[in-house]
């Protein structure tokens, strides 16, 4: 079993690149069938989705736009009124179909917030494409339209996902041991 060390944690290889790419191809097939006539804007959530977005977009076979945003939290005047904002979103979303491109859905909180922000910017239809989904960790009521891989509720790194900033460059996915 291939293992790696990142900071204080050990990880074992759990999903090889070939399997990741196979599953992304299936998601791309579905998106190509569903959205070819919808002129969607793909919106990748940085940092984690950068490799997924690149591999997915190479397999999309119709003209489309892709943009990258970051979710930032600004501290309000009290600790309870932190404000979330999408940094880097310059597109006009009025009447648009938006496909969120995310690395992983865990509790679903991040996706809930992003959907709220995109709705407030006028997006007409919002779809979610996620590389990974931990079904047993989900705590929010969201619909995932495209899921490449379902995984157990364990901490993983690689293929864009990090542990304290490390591991994003790994081409395969590793699970903490
Ligand atoms: P959620 O808001 O609880 O759904 O968490 C989603 C975010 O948490 C993702 O966008 C990741 O940045 C991070 N995350 C959740 N699980 C993992 C993991 O296993 N490894 C690395 N990051 C994770
Ligand atoms: Mg993320």
Give an account of the 3D structure:
- The chain contains three helices and ten strands; from the N terminus they run ββαβαβββαββββ.
- It has 177 residues and is α/β, with parallel strands linked by helices.
- It has a domain at 21-73 and 82-151: Rossmann fold (3-Layer(aba) Sandwich).
- Strands 5-4-3-6-7-8 form a six-stranded mixed β-sheet. Strands 1-2-10-9 form a four-stranded antiparallel β-sheet.
- A hairpin with an 8-residue loop joins strand 4 (65-74) and strand 5.
- The protein is globular, with a radius of gyration of 17 Å.
- The termini are close together.
- 32% of the residues are buried.
- The model has no long low-confidence stretch (mean pLDDT 95).
- Inosinic acid (IMP) binds at residues 48, 103-110, 155-157, 161.
- Magnesium ion is lined by residues 45, 48, 103.
Annotation field: number of helices = 3
Rg over C-alpha atoms, rounded to the nearest angstrom: 17 Å
Global outline? globular
Structural class by sheet pairing and helices: alpha/beta
Strand order of the largest sheet: 5-4-3-6-7-8
* Model regions low in confidence, pLDDT < 50 over at least 5 residues: none
Bound molecules: inosinic acid, magnesium ion
**What's the total number of strands?**
10
The CATH architecture of the domain at 21-73 and 82-151 would be 3-Layer(aba) Sandwich
Task: Give the averaged pLDDT, no decimals.
Answer: 95
CATH class (first level) name of the domain at 21-73 and 82-151: Alpha Beta
Distance between the termini: 12 Å
Brief overview, please?
The chain has 177 residues and is an alpha/beta fold. It has three helices and ten strands.
